[in-house]
Amino acid sequence: MMNPVDGTGFSRESTAEVVTKLRCRNIWKIYGQRPDKALATALGGSEPPLTLKRRLEETGHFLALADVSFDVQQGEIFVVMGLSGSGKSTLVRCLSRLVEPTSGEVWLGGENLLAASERRMVEVRRKVMGMVFQNFGLLPHLDVLDNVAFPLRMQGMPPADRTAKARDMIELVGLRGRENSMPLELSGGQQQRVGIARSLAVDPELWFLDEPFSALDPLIRRQMQDEFLRLQQLLQKTIVFITHDIQEAFRLADRIAIMREGRIIQIGRPADILLTPVDAYVASFTEEVSLAKVVTAGSVMAKLPGNWDASRGHEVDAATPIEMLLPRSLAGTQTFVITREGEGPVGLLTSEIIAKVLANDTAQRVVR
Amino acid sequence: MSILAALPVRVDNPAPYFRRQTVWFGILIFVSFCLAQRTAWPWLLTYPKAWILPAAPAVNGIFDWLVPLLTPPCAVISSMLGAALDACGFALRWMPWPATLAFFAVLGWRAQSWRLALFTAVALGYIVLAGYWQQGMNTLSMVTLAVPLAVTLGFLLGVGAHTSRHVRSVTLVALDLLQTVPAFAFLIPLLLLFGFGPIAGLVACVAYAIPPMVHCTMLGLARVPVSLLEVGGMAGCTRWQRFWHVVLPTARQQILTGVNQTTMASFSMVIMAAIIGGFNDVGWEVLDAMRKADFGHSLLSGLVIAVLAMVVDRITRGFAQPRHGSARQTRHDAVRVAAFLAVPVVGGALLHVAPASMARIDTLQGVVDPNALNTFVLDLVRAFSAPLDSLKVFVLYHFMLPLRIGLAAAVTPFTWGFAWTPQVSAFYAATTLVLAAWLTVNGRWGAGIVVLLGAALLLFGFNGFPWPAFIAVTAGLAWSVGGGRLAVPVTIGTSFVVTAGLYEPLGQSLYLCVLAVLICTFSGGLIGIAAAKSDRFSALLRPCCDTLQTMPQFIFLIPALMFFQVGELTGLIAIALYAIVPPIRYVEYGIKSVPADLVETSRQIGCTAWQRLIHVEFPVAKPEIVLGVNQTIMAALSMLPVAALVGTKDLGQQVYIGLSKADAGLGLVAGLSIAIVAMISDRIMRATVSRAGNSLD
Ligand SMILES: Nc1ncnc2c1ncn2[C@@H]1O[C@H](COP(=O)(O)OP(=O)(O)OP(=O)(O)O)[C@@H](O)[C@H]1O
Ligand SMILES: [Mg+2]
Question: Where does it localize (chain B) (predicted)?
């Protein structure tokens, strides 16, 4: 089994330099009267997770996060996925210290945020972090413009500057013309656009999104996901994205962390999670996602043979899902040449490999 | 009273089934024993004087020690408030009435609409025509001074209670007391500290008006969603910024509602404070007219109070309404309103330059002739005197007397047409026993016990019910709904009232309240059901209920007094008028909030409308209904001292006597007794509901 912390073996497809932006180590969060004492019990014993949780519950404590560690790379979309109540919101709130973790470390660059003073945290939230909330969290007494400008106002930016900046953000999320509407006059999708604009107004390096699209209906959700990907293309933020929707996770993620009962049980690229789930729980999760849609050509390609002749085969970008190659493969194409932007040919994909991936997909289904 | 609902009820697991049966069996035996011995041991009925604990003298002792200590600071406060009150009153009286009228009309327009402006103008116009302008302005100046004080203090207390747990626990107890001790009772210590006159009234007014503000502030702050607090956190707010820019604006609505309720409470108290006199205001006019049995005047001035209450309520409520539009527009608006408001003020000042026109304007004051009205009302009463009298006699002999002195004494050939012979007694007892036995056999032993106790109470009346039996029954009730944790304080409470020597007035109070609550629950419940079933009726009813609820308690005495003269019946009617709104509201709300799918299911099954009401809507709406009854009881109890003005002989009368003699001990102990009764019944009712698995909030 691979190391869940950094997903060893799953280096990002691009060979560009990898910079770790956010590093979490051993975060615990226990709700209740005496969390410290409960934590000591938890760390002392070595019982299986479920027994520990139940034992803490007997003393009136609730284990919301247990020993969570992961890294988020610069410019990456890191999706945290899990069922309702698995501790996702608690996790993301611990990162920004809206909720105080019981123990652990959150490293932002060279600074451990959990050791920072309250003043310093206010500073960090003002300058470095932005967050989008599930239920939008728009202030009902402010109009769209004032809502977006709100974080800037808290920093004491002069009115003219913050209005200009807020207008830019509103433009960016496509809400031009609605600046003076009140939140209640907007549809759900529009409200969340305002939420997104507000979280981006301070130009944060870290962008947290806690189930931003869960409250929207499926069609709008899809639109917003596209919109989100467009924005990320443009802005290249470092993102922690929370969701309970597996389709959404696989659509957006560079890497996914799957949570269960406060623990991370697997971290990896979408394809890896599909191909090698750590246990039946994860496998059952991913049942509904088609491998062919998620697995990219680059992730399953074979090495270029040394004697390779540059004129043979169709060229295909590494990020193309296998599904897109199916028609050509069925029509008789035996070999695809995988290329990466700026690098030229990097590997080969044969129709045999494609067939294997598909077989794996159906096999999984047959087993269950 | 809503603060009571916000307090946590501590309920132990209700007592186990078999133990409960045994205990109630014991209580029944004890009660029968007391009843059997009531003639042999007269002390069972009248609590012996020698056993009275000196609660009242103790309170007086404390005051004798406290008053000299507190007099100097109170004198300072008194002179400051006095100066402010004078200035305020002077300004309001100095303004010519058309200017003031226009000022309030503009306020009404901004608060809601031109319709409210019109209403305000007509209402204030009436006050001018009725000739109560000066008095009205005096009353208003008290309110104008009391409200900002109460709002500020209440807001600060509310914020404190929201942030600190210790402040909260102290505040909640204080609020509970302030809301259950009748207003008259806490006028007494203020009287000792500030002397007779408007200042004591003003202070009472502030004290009485603080609780709703505290309560609404706490509620508003507590209701700010966590998600918005988090938004503030992520936006990088400091604590203070978060409070100012996120919490306060979100809680604004609720806080403004608090301002509205505070204003109404202080208005109501200003009127009540008139009883200590010394101030030429509307409350005093009403009281004076009532004492002289001058119905014309009391009607006219009573209407002035009603009208003022409505105007003040609608304007403050209008401002508490949610606003649309952004902060920018609101700021722009504020400037415009200020400009509009300045116009009448300047106009009024200009009028003073022209004394001739002033004089002409003033001739409009008091053109309504109360004597004509007086004659009309007297004629009306005389015309209906025969039916009114027979109604009075009927209610008195058939409902009030039996409850007070018991059927055994109340039933005579003269009143009921037959004598209460031993045979009748035997028949009565037999019927009761059979009914109780039948209920018990059918598994409803609780109902059986209720029947037995009720029958005993009816037979001997509240006055003939031995006090040890009373204490035992209340304790048993508290124990079976709320366990030991409720039973102990309840027993201490009832024992306090009894040992203070107030058992007799307590019985009187209970009998009045029980009757009033029965009347209110029955008729109010019917009205509520009708309102729940017909939207049109509900729409018609709502303004009536609103109006009734904003009226100061005094007002309800006037119609009752007019038709039934001084006496217990008049008191009863006044109490019932004041307490009828809660059952209407809660029953309507309860039935309306029965889930639609339940209603549909019951229709699908084939319930008739009546069956649906009995088997679906009542049971589902039970928590709301119980809460409504609870509110009725609170209202009835708080009305007792006011009803004492028309000659009831109960705890309220004791408070009233204490007030008029400036006897702090008597008044406070009696007031506290009313508060204790209120709290006991409140806790028992709420425990009943929470046992049924429903939360009351
Ligand atoms: N203040 C609190 N006190 C006690 N328990 C809490 C508290 N806040 C959260 N929890 C518990 O922690 C668990 C994790 O909550 P969390 O909100 O992080 O779940 P989630 O994964 O975000 O779920 P959802 O998808 O429903 O948002 C839940 O079971 C919740 O009951
Ligand atoms: Mg969540």
Answer: Cell membrane
Q: Do B235 and A151 touch (CB under 8 A)?
A: yes
Residues A262 and A310 in one domain: no
Q: In what order do the strands lie in the sheet with A238-243?
A: A129-132, A206-210, A238-243, A77-82, A255-260, A263-268
Q: Is residue B665 a contact partner of residue B58, using CB atoms and an 8 Å limit?
A: yes
Topology classification of domain B97-320+329-376? MetI-like fold (1.10.3720)
The answer to whether residues A195 and A272 belong to one domain is: yes
Q: Whose CA is nearest to atom 12 of ligand 1?
A: A64
> Which of residues A288, A308, A337 is at a domain's end?
A288
Gap from B163 CA to chain A (nearest CA, Å): 18
Structure-token match 């040919």, residue found: A345
Determine the atom of ligand 1 nearest the C-alpha atom of A86.
21
Q: What would you measure as the largest C-alpha separation in chain A, in angstroms?
A: 70
Domain shared by A150 and A256, yes or no: yes
Identity of the residue numbered B64: D
pLDDT in tens, B547-560: 787 777 878 888 88
Residue nearest (by alpha carbon) to ligand 1 atom 30: A85
How many angstroms separate the CA of residue A63 from the nearest CA in chain B?
Answer: 21
Same domain, A248 and A324: no
Task: Assess whether A340 and A227 both reside in one domain.
Answer: no
Q: Does the residue A344 lie in any domain?
A: yes
Residues with CB under 6 A from ligand 1: A 31, 62, 64, 82, 84-90, 244
- When scoring B234, B242, B324, B331 by the number of chain A Cβ atoms within 10 A, the one with the most, hence best to mutate, is B234
Q: A182 and B246: CB-CB below 8 Å?
A: no
* The two structure tokens encoding residue B425: 């007694």
- CB < 8 Å to A180, chain B: 326
**Please, where are the H alpha helices in B384-419?**
385-395, 401-405, 407-410, 413-416
Same-domain pairing of A262 and A221:
yes
Output b/e per residue, B92-115; b: 16+ Cβ within 10 A.
bbebbbbbbbbbbbbbbbbbbeee
Across the range A137-166, mean pLDDT stands at 90
Edge to edge, the sheet with strand A103-108 lists A62-73, A20-31, A103-108, A111-112
**pLDDT given at position A136:** 86
- Give the model confidence (pLDDT) of B495-526 as tens digits: 999 988 888 888 888 888 999 999 999 999 99
ipTM summary value = 0.75
- A64 Cα: distance to centroid of ligand 2 (angstroms): 12
Minimum mean pLDDT range among A45-49, B212-216, B509-513: A45-49
Per-residue model confidence (pLDDT) at position B85: 87
Check residue A21 and report its DSSP letter: E
Give the position of tokens 């020993």: A67
Among A105, A41, A31, A42, which residue's Cα sits nearest to residue A71?
Answer: A105
Residues A133, A146, single domain; the answer is: yes
Q: Do A154 and B237 touch (CB under 8 A)?
A: yes
Task: Determine the atom of ligand 1 nearest the C-alpha atom of A90.
Answer: 18
Structurally, at CATH architecture level, domain B3-50+389-406+461-691 sits in: Orthogonal Bundle (1.10)
Range of the domain at A178: 73-94+112-288
Q: What is the pLDDT of residues B295-341, one digit of tens each?
A: 778 888 888 888 888 888 888 888 887 766 556 667 777 788 888 88
- For chain B, what are the domain ranges? 3-50+389-406+461-691, 97-320+329-376, 407-460
Residue A68 — very low, low, confident or very high, per pLDDT cuts 50/70/90? very high
